[in-house]
Amino acid sequence: MSHILEVRNLSKSFHGLRAVHEVNFDVGEGELLALIGPNGAGKSTCFNMLMGQLKPTTGEVHFQGENLVGKYPRDIWRKGIGRTFQITATYSSMTVVENVQMALMSFHRRVYSMLPYAHKMYKKEALTFLDMVGLASQSERHCAILAYGDLKRLELAIALCHNPTLLLMDEPTAGMAPTERESVMQLTADIVREKNISVLFTEHDMDVVFGHAHRILVLNRGELIANGSVDDIRNNPMVQEVYLGGGNLFDSDEAAS
Amino acid sequence: MELFFAQLLTGLANAATLFLVASGLSLIFGVTRIVNFAHGSFYMLGAFIGYSLMQVLPGMFGFWLSVLLAGLVVGVIGVVVEILVLRPVYKAPELFQLVATFGVILVIQDLALLIWGADDVLGPRAPGLKGIVRIMGEPVPKYDLALIAITPFFLFGLWYLISKTRIGILVRAATQDREMVGALGVNQAWLFTGVFFLGATLAGLGGAIQLPKGGADLLMDFNILAAIFVVVVIGGMGSLPGAYVAAALISVLNVFGVTFLPQSTLVLMFVVMAVVLMIKPYGLFGREEVAGEHGQVGEPERPIKPAGVKVRLLVAAGLLLLALLPLFGSDFSQVLTSDVIIFCLFAASLHFILGLGGLVSFGHAAFFGGGAYVAALLVSHVDAPMEIAFLLAPIGAGFAAFIIGWLCMRLTGVYFAMLTLAFAQLIWSLVYQWGEFTGGDDGLVDIWPSTWLNGTTPYYYFTLVFGIGGILLLRHAAHSPFGYALRASRDSSRQAEATGINTKRIQWAAFTFAGSLAGLSGALFVFSKGSVFPTELEIARSFDALIVIFLGGVKTLSGAVVGGASLEYAKDFLTRFEYWRLTLGLIIIFVVIVAPEGISGTLRKVAERFGIIRQREGES
Ligand SMILES: Nc1ncnc2c1ncn2[C@@H]1O[C@H](COP(=O)(O)OP(=O)(O)OP(=O)(O)O)[C@@H](O)[C@H]1O
Ligand SMILES: [Mg+2]
To answer: Fewer CB within 10 Å, N side or C side of chain A?
Structure first.
């Protein structure tokens, strides 16, 4: 399997706090890779460095052979990486479908255009993305009144708009009921298989992780302590230790979110 | 050298007042996040009340007692204002409260006029400190020395209060994290009231203590306002030592400016502020704003849709009525309506960046007046034909907005507002002091339209076409991808940036666009009046537009136009009466309290409740 993302010696410290330290990993083509670890392990910080929201203290991130460090999120997005946020970020003054249309307008480089009516642009396309994540029936609703789980779905739809090759998903199922988690994760797995997208995701629910991940990375206090298949990780004593020490391996949902 | 030292002392003495007033403003902002425009009015009241007290309390003891009492009385007035006017609107959208405080300014202006009359009063000299002393041969008033000696005690006293007492610890905690104080079980409402008392008291003390130097007059509220904002911003919002250092810096520079660069006095302060903010965006002692602190408060804005058939017909009918006005209306009604349209365009252009972009600009008059001056300068210096001047005005204003926007764009929230204010003041003072070129205070006159537009009615139609055209253009832009990208940048810059939108550049472009449309309204203005004066660039002009937008409703597209029309017509009607400010101020406060969504937002809600227009699904 060829790698589309290569992360080398990635580190970030905040005023002396080593949030992420010398992390190395690769993401393969079409791979569903989970990044797990207790609260504060540095998962979101990793995501922020991959997508350009944070500048790494040291280290490199190669995407399809190109170093991403120092680039703006918007430029990294154009190269074909999409992401969702742990704390959802959507446009609360717009309708659900307009949120997706906005991303499409940006993708087609129309954001400086002043002539057409925006609410008509790429609407059909936007609706197909909403349909994909199961939000079609809510497309005309005001985004500010959406349930949290639906906001997560909306973010996924937005992130799919530019046909990404790599998707970063920060806790895609946080705040959802267990059954909904499963369905959202299944949905994601189907979409990415169909479109051949690679996914790096963080998740606190071990059922979701063990059920869907092809491979798992374990982060603890900023350091990568394990990297292997589902079975490897499940039986890795060090991982057990970290999680049991934190007290939340196999029933972690509520404590974590 | 001797002169240098004497001037340094004068500057430091002047800093006393500035520090007292500014530290009050800073405290109020730090804790309540309210930009209190009425702070200058508290200062003015302190001066007048102190003056009256000094008439009845004799001697040295009486003088200082009067100062103290004036401070306390103003403090109580501050409490009254806080409880009656501000408490009802704490939950209103960000910065909405400043409209209420603007209403308070108007009310206090007329009350002061009513009580103390229109004449300036000369402050009594401080008993026991009347003469001068010679320091290195230069005369220095004794009172100045007293002020220099007192100020550190005030600074120390305040510092002690804030950092050593329980109240102070609460105040500091509230400055840093308002939710936490609530969680600690402290009654936030009373904490706010207390801080208002303290802040107003300081302003009152500042007003009373400067009586022997400056006396009292009815313009001092606005005159000090710009200076204290500058001090607070340079020092860093909420920082007491910052306020002191900045007050000293500004006052001393000012004294030297008067001596060595008399042309520059007005500009100097704002140049210093602009330089400081560009190097240290949060002021000398300020800390970075915690993100989200200024996020949208209240109900989220609703999705927008281009007007439906019904509304379009209504607008068309309105336009038809306007077009027919010359048939049945007087010349005066045409002039008044032109004024209203011009003002509405100006307000709508500010609404574009403020309402849709979330960029609160306190200096939008720079582009209105800027456009007017570009046209007027072209006409009077190079004899440009009106058509050319009219065309170049929005371009010139847009260019100014392009430059100023670039300089301001790295700041956000109140700091952005202050920097735009600083640049607007910079332009104002340039125009004011560069008399040979701009006519200075006398303005530029004889700027009339071409012959084919001579007369009231032709120019009325001209205004109608370009004014309404500009407003419709802004409206259309709001519904275009550009307008959507602007709202996206405001709603979630994180998501926007992560999906390819350069949010700062979008905002910059919007700022430029809005600036050029303000310039268009300025051009319409100058040819309708035949003249332009520096007042068109003043803070008060910027505030007019700001007030109108909040009154009309920030979160509705029609807000600026509805508010603009209401205010202009109301002003025209009210200014016929003697105490029109009082009335207008009370009306503004009333609207703010009963209609925190603004006029059009509230009208829409009422209409929805009674089923006149359909409520969108899921919205309350
Ligand atoms: N901007 C920041 N400034 C300072 N410290 C930060 C910042 N962002 C994160 N941290 C710290 O870095 C560490 C890692 O945080 P991060 O958000 O990456 O953890 P996480 O693994 O995503 O945790 P969670 O499961 O709670 O989301 C934490 O100790 C956090 O406090
Ligand atoms: Mg996280």
So the answer is: N
